[in-house]
Amino acid sequence: MNSSHPVVPLPMKAGRPHDIEREGQPRLLGFWVFLMSDALIFALLFAVYATMVNATDGGPVGKALFDLKASLIETLLLLVSSFTFAMASLNLTYRPERLGLLVTWLCTTLVLGLAFIGMELNDFRLMIGDGATAQRSGFLSAFYALVSTHGLHVSAGCLWLVVMLVQLKVFGLDARVRLRLKCLALFWHFLDVIWVAIYGIVYLQGLV
Amino acid sequence: MDRHDGYRRTLRLYRSGLLLAIILTAVPTALVHWAGLSRSSTLTWVLLLVLAQIVVHLHCFLHIGVKRSGRNELGLILFTAVIVLLMVGGTIMVFFDQMQRMG
User: Fold this and answer.
1) Domains, chain A, ranges and CATH?
2) Model ipTM over 0.85
């Protein structure tokens, strides 16, 4: 045996759902590391918000600014979009031959994500119209920093989703596209988790 | 049939995830909207329900469990939770202490 040629393990035969779930595990774990470092950014923005929540400088407070109905609808939009993306993942893993179904679920998710961003921008517009700009008080600076960081993440997710739809069209459902869709699914569900925390801690606790 | 079973099981998981998530959103919203409880207990309940909903999302949508296949991710999440607890808890503790001393 020639020692300069190490034995290379044969690649796993892909195609069965069992193997598909296992392919790309190390990369998915790497994506988890990214998500967790992103979670730390949000955690510190939450910490800043918590220390600034009473620093209103005589300006508007959360109770007067936040709209329970709008934020509840935003929450439901994201919750349902998380479910529709989960349905897309389900079709990706178990019914890859029905590409149309996968694309439909992904498009539904995209529409829900865009609706969420639209509603959030409208909220900001109304708040700024009431004089609640980011430079008004420490509380509002921390609020906009936290909520718009999440909004930017969702926008990036929507852009990524569009890119994946194009890749599905161009490359079809090959191993790379499959892996990227799985990473995007993790990203999307992660953003939903962050929003749940924002809804509870910023909006609901602010309205108490 | 294995494939079919997997499909059904996962579908059930996602459906229950959606249902639980909606319930866990509706309950704190109702608590705040109708304001039946005192201020401090409402705040505590909202926080607890948020934590419960995060656990539901991690389990149902992100497939985190104690099974061997998900151990790495679980380890990462727990490690991050410790760091978050230290950094967020520490920040809040220091700032509130400072506020009390200055006020």
Assistant:
1) 25-207 (1.20.120.80)
2) yes
